[in-house]
Amino acid sequence: MSITYRVTHRTEYRYAREVVPSYSQLHLIPRELPGQRLRSANVTIDPRPEYFREGIDYFGNRVAYAAIQQPHRKLSVTADSLVEIANRPNEPSLLGQRAWEVVRDEAQTAQGDERLEAAQFALGSPLVRGSAEFADYALASFTPQRPLLDAITELSSRIHGDFTYKPGSTTVNTPVTEVFAKRRGVCQDFAHLGIACLRAIGLPARYVSGYLETDPPAGRPKLKGADVSHAWLSVLLGQADWLEIDPTNDQLVNDRYIVTAYGRDYSDVPPLKGVIHTHGKTRSLKVTVDVVAVP
Fold first, then answer.
1. Residue 94 to residue 243: CA distance in whole angstroms
2. Other C-beta atoms within 10 Å of 126: how many?
3. Least reliable range by pLDDT among 58-67, 221-230, 265-274
4. Which of 79, 99, 94 is nearest to 38 (CA)?
5. Is residue 268's pLDDT more than 70?
6. pLDDT tens by residue, 151-200
């Protein structure tokens, strides 16, 4: 059985004065993955860019580049996608039943492409730096010889319980050390925190950008982060298999999640980032996301 979602992501910038030129990079189109099929996608930009190109980035994500040469005081970007989620496993891989030290050691001794895949998500990245405090926090769950699945599930639950979800308490540039100290943040912060803990004990972990179903089925709770782009993390289980988990909502990823991009941290895959070469500062920014199941 499959579920089809329509994802509409709207971003609107308003500037204090006319700006020109402006250049943008977009990670707004969901990936093609096992169990996730992109049926259609369209990006509309106003003003219409003189240059627009789509491609695949280093991590295999859909990415687009746009350049606007005409003066403008407002920029709107709307991405509309139709995504089918099917055959997503109901149970985690049996690889997650192995002791976490076995998974760690296997990642560190892998060869060739597997070694590269593991290493790029095990090392520090611009927004996620490992430290002893993250290792100590992780090791309370990652006790000796504990199955990785049990340990990561408990770590996620502890992050969910120990940290307060508070929109506006952080920015996209808030260091994960500050999040850890102040015990509050949003989904990207909790993803970064989980990644920092895992990397600090030698486990490769990656950042996942995507969406959650906006309107849950009757009787099921509305989840945090469902009205904006969402973020969670995944940990390498071995043999190119990854386990995705969402500490913001304290659950394993299921068929209500849609993956847009993978990266080392948020800085690799922001939904939209850009540069303007004039003094027209951003006066306002409005982002809305709708994720709705369709027949």
1. 11
2. 11
3. 221-230
4. 79
5. yes
6. 999 999 999 999 999 999 999 889 999 999 999 999 999 999 999 999 99
Q: Compute the distance between CA of residue 177 and CA of residue 31 in angstroms, rounded to an integer.
A: 30
Tokens representing 236 are 């390498």
The residue assigned the tokens 């027949």 is: 295
In CATH, which of 3.40.50.2300, 3.10.620.30, 3.40.50.300, 3.30.420.40 is domain 94-254?
3.10.620.30
| 30 contacts 258 by C-beta, under 8 angstroms | yes
Strand partners, 153: none
Topology of domain 2-86+270-294, CATH: Immunoglobulin-like (2.60.40)
Does residue 71 surpass a pLDDT of 70?
yes
Sign of the alpha-carbon torsion through 95, 101, 104, 108: negative
Handedness of CA 160, 232, 282, 129 (dihedral sign): positive
Does this model's pTM top 0.85? My answer is yes
Tell me the C-alpha distance between 244 and 235, whole Å. 7
What's the CA dihedral at 28, 32, 34, 36 to 10 degrees? 60
Q: Which long-range contacts (CB under 8 A, 24 or more apart) does 102-108 make?
A: 103/148, 103/203, 103/236, 103/237, 103/238, 104/201, 104/202, 104/203, 106/238, 107/202, 107/203, 107/204, 107/236, 107/238, 108/202
